[in-house]
Amino acid sequence: MKNYKLYDMDSVELTECIGNLKLELKKSNTEYKEISEKIEDMKEKYPTIRNFLEDEKASKLSDEEGKAFLELINLYRKLISVEQYEVFLLGGHECFGYLKKIKAV
């Protein structure tokens, strides 16, 4: 991963940094990549769900689509969990770097 200096960033730069982290995860983290692919496959298989999520078009779901939607929510939760873990690690790394910068460690 790149060497970020989170403590010197404004909120826009931080948002961009986290976006870049997600792109890096897609390339380097097998679990993240697999979950992302499953999500895309499900949205392709169930266009009603895709339209609901991406275009905010409300419509009724069949029983099968309802079950798929619940599975999709769980996949998104797993994806977010991986992202949060990586952001946590990045924050810890940056915290240590900042403490070194101010000569606290």
Q: DSSP strand (E) fraction?
A: under 5%
Low-confidence stretches: none
* Beginning-to-end CA distance, first to last residue: 23 Å
Largest sheet: none
Number of helices: 4
State the shape.
elongated
The helix content is over 70%
Cα radius of gyration in angstroms: 18 Å
Give the helix/strand class.
mainly alpha
Spell the H/E element sequence.
HHHH
Q: Mean of the pLDDT scores?
A: 90
- Total E-strand runs: 0
When the domains are counted, the total is: 1
Brief summary:
This protein has 105 residues and is mostly helical. The protein has helices spanning 11-28, 30-45, 47-55, 63-101.
Write the layout of secondary structure elements.
Elements: H1 11-28, H2 30-45, H3 47-55, H4 63-101
Helix pairs in contact: 1-2, 2-3, 2-4
